[in-house]
Amino acid sequence: MSYSELSEQEQLRRKSLSRLRELGINPYPPEMFETNSDSKEIKDKYNKEENNLQDITIAGRIMSRRIMGKASFIELQDDKGRIQLYFNRDEICPAEDKTAYNEVFKKLLDIGDIIGVKGNVFITKVGEISVNVKHFTVLTKSLRPLPIVKEKEGKTFDAFTDPEQRYRQRYLDLIVNSEVKETFRNRTKLVNTMREYLNEKGYLEVETPILQPLYGGAAASPFKTHHNTLNTTLYLRIANELYLKRLIVGGFDGVYEFSKDFRNEGMSRFHNPEFTQIELYVAYKDYEWMMNTAEEMIEKVALAIHGTTKVQVGENIIDFKRPWKRFTMYEAIEHFTGIDISEMDETEMAETAKKLGVEVDETMGRGKLIDEIFGEKCEAQLIQPTFITDYPIEMSPLAKKHRTKEGLVERFEGICNGKEICNAFSELNDPIDQRERFEEQLLLAKRGDEEAMMLDEDFIRAIEYGMPPTAGIGIGIDRLSMIMTNSNSIQDVLFFPQMKPEKKKEIDKAEKYIEIGIPEEWITLIQKSGFITTESLKKAKAGKLFNDLCGINKKGKLGLKNPTIEQVKSWIEKA
User: pTM value?
Assistant: First the structure.
């Protein structure tokens, strides 16, 4: 980007950068700046009577400034919050040379710059805990202006709230909307609580391959890549289930993994193609045991984050206190639709789905049809934590057949706030049955089901050596984080969610401006004022644009002859 393409603010900041260097100040110093306190600790620990905290060192970003002659205030933001700093010229510069205050502080520092300060804590006349700065160090010169959020009479103006900008420029979102940090701190607390719970039970945290020669462990479309050295196709994992079960075969009684998984599917406020889940497998257990474990662990998460099992999610209060409600899959469908589908064959199921307004196609087998009916008619109505149990065998190629109910498997899903948060089985460990299930999936794939599982011969070989009875579960960390932080979109709980490619701004060529009578020397300045196309110029207010152009001309000492207000009005009318 050329200098002329920079905004006025960006040009001024670069001039300040150059001046700092002329004064012998490195605006990006290599030395460590060691702090001994932070904004929260100062506010929590300062005691006026004890007059403590008299030699503190903190660092952070300038978020606001009030320059008043030889005494000024700024608001500094660090990792823990914000605190007011007081700058007095004669304390900053006790000798005759006042450059550090009069020029560096007052003229060369901007909102967004990062500084370190040393000083003592005191309380101002209006009762605000502040730091009286004795010395300051420029640590980083910011070359782009921050969006300035203004507050007046309890109302917020110019807030940085556009979702696409916030997700695409998360670094800016975290600076300006500092409360967003709490969402991610709570996400980390969620993961740590689960990890502590499982470690206390003696289970082993492991890592399994992300690049896999075969994808499996879930019904989903994969991302495909190519390994040049091996000259072979590999897939980004859609789940880590089959590798974790291999470890159970190998003799570990309990293993778990917080895994990044990838599914080449649609994006929505509930789906991101890259997502995090925890999968846990424990030998000699069944799905009933796993239900109890899941609700106990998630209850602990709610308590760790909120101090209570009751969590505000949108307009609902969701209570994670055990025990959770339980429905079989067939019971749930009958409860919400009034139709008993348990004895229907595939043809009857398809007709019923159509009558219920559920979209179907010829690739759908009986299990897929049941899944679609449940998803369309039941799932959204399950707000409080609920276990849906005993799924039809067609829906669950990796789950063990039900011990008493023909045609069903020992599987459950945890549903909360209308969305699945976990999925678990009594794991299938009969290698002959497992091969038959995989072969049925291959038939579905031939019918066009893109989410059908592949036949994994090595996994079959592993369980032919003998896998003990095992319970397994996958819990979606992103979905659970949405609920625990009362976030409306999965993008709100991912630091850097997947986004569509950023569109480049279309900028009109000079000829278009000249056609409507704008002199060539004013085109760049008009574009700097935000009107990068003649079409956008139609929305301009003549008075403001006139003042902006004259102001840029004067500040930049460009020496151009200012247009008249009538000329500016004419440009807008012709645009």
Answer: 0.84
CA distance 488 to 480: 12
Residue ranges with strand state E in 143-238: 150-152, 155-157, 204-205, 211-212, 223-227, 232-236
- For residue 501, what is the DSSP state? P
The DSSP annotation for 459-484 comes to HHHHHHTT---EEEEEEEHHHHHHHH
End-to-end CA distance of the chain: 27
In this structure, are 139 and 235 located in the same domain?
Answer: no
Domains held by the chain: number: 3
- Please give the pLDDT value at position 158: 60
- How far is residue 235's CA from residue 163's CA, in Å, rounded to a whole number? 31
Matching residue, tokens 């219920």: 356
Classify the phi-psi angles of 559: left when phi > 0, otherwise alpha if psi is within -120 to 50, otherwise beta.
left
pLDDT at 9 over 70: yes
Which residue, of 117, 146, 175, is where some domain finishes?
A: 146
CATH of residue 109:
2.40.50.140
Say which residue, 428 or 453, is predicted with more confidence. 428
Q: Are residues 135 and 7 in the same domain?
A: yes
Query: Counting Cβ atoms within 10 Å, is residue 327 exposed (0-12), middle (13-18) or buried (19+)?
Result: buried
In a shared domain, residues 433 and 306: yes
CB burial of residue 309 (10 Å; 0-12, 13-18, 19+): middle
Q: What is the mean pLDDT of the chain?
A: 92
Q: What backbone phi and psi angles, to 5 degrees, belong to 185? A: -65, -40
- Same domain, yes or no: 433 and 519: no
pLDDT for 156 beyond 70: no
Which residues on neighbouring strands pair with residue 281, listed in sequence order? 255, 472
| 527 lies in some domain | yes
> How confident is the model over 281-335, as pLDDT tens digits?
999 999 999 999 999 999 999 999 999 999 999 999 999 999 999 999 999 999 9
- Is residue 494's pLDDT more than 70? yes
Question: Cα–chain-centroid distance for residue 445?
Answer: 34
Task: Give domain status of residue 361, yes or no.
Answer: no
E runs forming strands in 222-366: 223-227, 232-236, 254-262, 274-283, 310-313, 316-319, 325-328
Between 157 and 575, name the one with better pLDDT: 575
DSSP label of 107: I
Q: Pick from 337, 317, 312: which is nearest to 384 by CA?
A: 317
DSSP letter string, 343-376: T--HHHHHHHHHHTT----TT--HHHHHHHHHHH
Band of pLDDT at residue 4, cut at 50, 70 and 90: low
Q: Pseudo-torsion of CA 38, 41, 42, 45, nearest 10°? A: -160
> Could you tell me the residue range of the domain that residue 413 belongs to?
207-324+384-493
* In a shared domain, residues 552 and 466: no
Pull the structure tokens for residue 261.
Answer: 């998984």
pLDDT digits (tens, 9 = 90+) for 23-61: 999 999 999 999 999 999 999 999 988 889 999 999 999
Report, as an integer, the average pLDDT of 265-271.
87
527 has pLDDT over 70: yes
Of 433, 467, 493, the one marking the end of a domain is 493
Measured distance CA(536)–CA(489) in Å, rounded: 32
Tokens of 200: 């206390």
